[in-house]
Write a structure and sequence with these properties.
Elements lengths: L2 H6 L3 E6 L5 H14 L3 E6 L5 H5 L10 E3 L1 H4 L9 E6 L2 H12 L3 H9 L1 H11 L2 H15 L4 E5 L6 H5 L1 H10 L1 H7 L4 H7 L4 H10 L3 H12 L3 H15 L4 E7 L3 H16 L4 E9 L12 H11 L1 H31 L5 E5 L7 H13 L1
Parallel strand pairs: 1-5, 1-6, 2-4, 2-5, 6-7, 7-8
Antiparallel strand pairs: 3-4
Helix pairs in contact: 2-19, 5-7, 5-8, 8-10, 8-15, 10-15, 12-14, 16-18, 17-18
Length: 369
C-alpha cells in the first residue's frame, strides 16, 4: 500500500524525524494533499520557531486552529476541495485547558489556578512539548471538528520521548512522596490543618513564604483531578495506538538522517505503532544504472562543443550531479532494505527559486499524485 493510500484511510498523521530533513514542510504538504481530497484538516506544529508559519507564507500562527483561505493557498497550485486549519501549540495554555476540562466546578479551577505551586509546575509540565502535543491531539480528535489531524513534532533523537509523554505525566502524580500529600489523612492534610506548626513557622522565616502550606494546598486542590489525569493519560495513549493513527517518518538520503530514521522505525515497531510510510526529501533522482564515471570522453566532447573553460565547468558539474545521485540512491536503498514493507515516497530536490507555497504544492503532488 502506498503512503497516499495509507493517509487516505487514517484520521491522524504524526510526522517524526530528525532535524533539518524538511519535516515541517512535509507535514504541511500532507495537510495540503489531504485537503485536496476534500478533507477538513487541522495542522499542528509544536515548534515555536515559526518554521510552519514560514512554510505557509504567514507572518505568525495562532494558538488555536485558524482557517487558511483558498485564496492564500492558491499559489501552491493545489485545487482544494477541503480546508486547512493551522496552529502553533501553546504548551501552558494547553495544560491549563486540560485542568479546566477535568475540574468539577469553577471553585476547583480557581483554587488550582491561583495556587503559587501550580503556577510553577504548570510552566514546567506545560513546557513538556511532548505531553501538551498529545493532549491537544486528543482534544481536537474528540471535538469532531476535523476529518484529519497532522502533527509536526519537534526534532528528537528518541521518538519514545513523545510516545511516553502520558506515562511520564502520571509518574509525577504517582511518586511516593506526592502520594503522601494526596492521601486524605497524609502529610498534606496534617500540614494544612497545622499551619502554625514550628517547622512551617521556621520555613516562613527562612524563605519568606509558607512553602509547605502552599504545597499542601496545591495537592488538596489537584487531588480531585488525579483520577481524571489517569483516565486522560490512558485515553491519549490509546489514541496513539488507535487504528486511525499512523506515524510518517521524514528523512533525507544522507547517512545520518537515514541512520536516525531506521532507529525511529525500530522504536515505533517495538511500541507496536503503525509506520504509515517514509518520505525521503531532497533526493537527487537518477536512473538505476547511473554511477560515477571518470571517463574523459564526456569532458572532451563538452570542451569541443563549448570551449575549454565552459566545457570543463559543465563536465565537473555533471560529474558532481551523478555522484550525488549515486550517493542518494545508496541511502534510499539502505532505507528500503531496513524498512522492508514500509512504503517509501521520494521527493526530488526542488528548484530553490520556488516560493513557500509553490514548494508545498510540489511536495503534495509528489505524495498524492
Amino acid at each position: 500500500m502506498s503512503l497516499d493510500a495509507v493517509l487516505s484511510e487514517r484520521r491522524i498523521c504524526i510526522c517524526v524525524g530528525a532535524g533539518g530533513v524538511g519535516k515541517t514542510t512535509s507535514a504541511a504538504a500532507i495537510a495540503l494533499g489531504l485537503a485536496a481530497k476534500g478533507r477538513r484538516v487541522a495542522l499542528i506544529t509544536i515548534d515555536p520557531s515559526r518554521r510552519l508559519a514560514g512554510a505557509l507564507a504567514l507572518d505568525a500562527l495562532a494558538s488555536e486552529p485558524q482557517l487558511l483561505s483558498a485564496e492564500h493557498l492558491a499559489p501552491s497550485g493545489v485545487a482544494l476541495r477541503g480546508e486547512v486549519w493551522a496552529m502553533v501549540l501553546d504548551p501552558k495554555r494547553t495544560f491549563d485547558d486540560l485542568i479546566r476540562g477535568l475540574a468539577v466546578d469553577q471553585a476547583t479551577r480557581d483554587r488550582v489556578f491561583t495556587n503559587r505551586i501550580y503556577r510553577e509546575i504548570s510552566g514546567a509540565v506545560g513546557g513538556s512539548h511532548e505531553f501538551t502535543a498529545v493532549a491537544k491531539l486528543f482534544e481536537l480528535d474528540r471535538s469532531g471538528q476535523f476529518d484529519a489531524i497532522v502533527l509536526d513534532t519537534p526534532p528528537s533523537r528518541n521518538t519514545l520521548d513523545f510516545l511516553r509523554a502520558p506515562e511520564h505525566l502520571m509518574q509525577f502524580f504517582d511518586a511516593p512522596a506526592l502520594r503522601l500529600f494526596l492521601a486524605p489523612a497524609g502529610l498534606g492534610a496534617r500540614f494544612a490543618n497545622r499551619a502554625g506548626a514550628p517547622a512551617m513557622a521556621l520555613m516562613r522565616r527562612l524563605i519568606g513564604i509558607d512553602l509547605l502550606g502552599e504545597i499542601a494546598l496545591f495537592f488538596a486542590a489537584v487531588g480531585s483531578l488525579v483520577g481524571g489525569f489517569r483516565e486522560r493519560a490512558a485515553a491519549v495513549e490509546a489514541l496513539l495506538r488507535d487504528r486511525g493513527t499512523t506515524f510518517v517518518l521524514i528523512s533525507s538520503p544522507e547517512r545520518e538522517p537515514v541512520r536516525e530514521s531506521i532507529a525511529f522505525a525500530a522504536q515505533l515497531r517495538r511500541a507496536d505503532l503503525e509506520i504509515g510510510g517514509v518520505l525521503v526529501n531532497r533526493v537527487a533522482m537518477s536512473t538505476d544504472d547511473d554511477a560515477p564515471s571518470d571517463s574523459p570522453a564526456t569532458e572532451l566532447a563538452l570542451v569541443a562543443a563549448l570551449g575549454e573553460r565552459l566545457g570543463g565547468i559543465v563536465a565537473a558539474s555533471a560529474e558532481r550531479a551523478v555522484r550525488q545521485a549515486h550517493q542518494d540512491q545508496l541511502g534510499v536503498a539502505r532505507l528500503r532494505g531496513q524498512l522492508d514493507g514500509v512504503p517509501l515516497t521520494l521527493v526530488p530536490r526542488l528548484d530553490r527559486s520556488l516560493g513557500e507555497l509553490e514548494t508545498l504544492g510540489a511536495v503534495a503532488r509528489r505524495l498524492f499524485d
